[in-house]
Write a structure and sequence with these properties.
The protein has 308 residues and is an alpha/beta fold. It has eleven helices and twelve strands. The strands form three sheets. Strands 3-4-5-8-9-10-11-12 form an eight-stranded parallel β-barrel, surrounded by five helices.
């Protein structure tokens, strides 16, 4: 498993990381998934306090006991929820972020967190408060680095301008190429790493693409209508057959081709999915010619909202 530097940090993260949202609440099964990931050379786990309202962090913390030196932990905060109460609301205040962080640290059973991220954000947030919270946590040695998880260009630009973020987590795939419009180059210029989610397009960019399209894509995706989406999926599978590289490997190879990418966060609900993802990654070295062909069979989408 190759590693890349996360932005301007000194964190060397595996090119494939484990998204923990779909681990579920079966502790033994979740621990097996995490152990499989570690065995496959994955050293970066991404969770959030909102996943199963804190239970996910507890499970991740339990699974890495005695293995802290093998793994880097990223979590997120900003969605305000109270134990025993339904629902949550967005709360990026400094006071809540610090409280949320303290709770995450306790659930994970750690002394520090490698990367703490704002879990969303709007242009109307008290950005200075958010940055103050992150900077103080960093100065206290409780976090090594901080970042944001956002697909909103205006929010990303604001943090690039005003903060020392190390990373941005965003959606990026062959079907969602919006970051290519300007955000990837902006982040590259400022040495901010991208942690990408959604690289497999809800499973539509795997060998199960047609089946997943029937389940999730008939009404379209972003600016693809249903028929355009099916055509792109078919073209991907045809190229995979022609090149002898699986659709999943082509999708992973495409996303990792951009130098701003630090890691692809791929979720898994069982150990075999982790193994399948790593196998696809291992064949994901694609040529420049294949890269250009992948661009031709998909759309150069642009962000329609949250630009200003």
């Amino acid at each position: 498993m190759q590693k890349r530097t996360l932005g301007h940090s000194n964190l060397k993260v595996s090119e494939i990381s484990l998204g923990c949202m779909n681990l579920g609440t079966n502790v033994k099964q979740a621990e097996n998934i995490i152990q499989t990931a570690l065995d496959q050379g994955i050293n970066y786990l991404d969770t959030a306090d909102l996943y199963d309202f804190g239970e996910n962090e507890k499970i991740v913390g339990q699974a890495i006991k005695g293995k802290r030196d093998q793994v880097m932990i990223a979590t997120k905060g900003g969605n305000h929820f109270e134990p025993g109460q339904e629902g949550w609301y967005w709360d990026p205040s400094k006071s809540y972020l610090k409280e949320a962080f303290k709770n995450s640290l306790q659930r994970l059973g750690l002394d520090y967190i490698d990367l703490y991220q704002l879990h969303g954000g709007t242009i109307d947030d008290p950005t200075d408060e958010v940055i103050e919270a992150f900077e103080e946590l960093q100065q206290d040695g409780l976090i090594r680095y901080y970042g944001i998880s956002s697909i909103r260009p205006n929010v990303i630009k604001k943090f690039v301008e005003k903060s020392n973020i190390t990373s941005v987590m965003m959606q990026y795939s062959l079907l969602d190429r919006r970051p290519e419009e300007e955000i990837l180059e902006l982040l590259k210029e400022h040495q901010i790493g991208v942690v990408a989610r959604g690289a497999l397009g809800k499973g539509m960019l795997t060998h199960h693409g047609q089946t997943q399209w029937q389940k999730k894509g008939q009404d379209g995706f972003l600016d693809y209508n249903g028929n355009e989406l099916k055509s792109a999926i078919t073209s991907l599978q045809d190229l995979a057959h022609e090149s002898g590289i699986s659709p999943q490997a082509l999708a992973i190879g495409y996303a990792l081709k951009h130098p701003t990418l630090s890691s692809l966060v791929l979720g898994a609900s069982d150990s075999q999915q982790v193994i399948d993802n790593v196998r696809a990654y291992q064949e994901a070295q694609i040529s420049n010619e294949t890269y250009e062909r992948l661009k031709q069979i998909t759309k150069a989408n642009i962000y329609q909202n949250h630009r200003i």
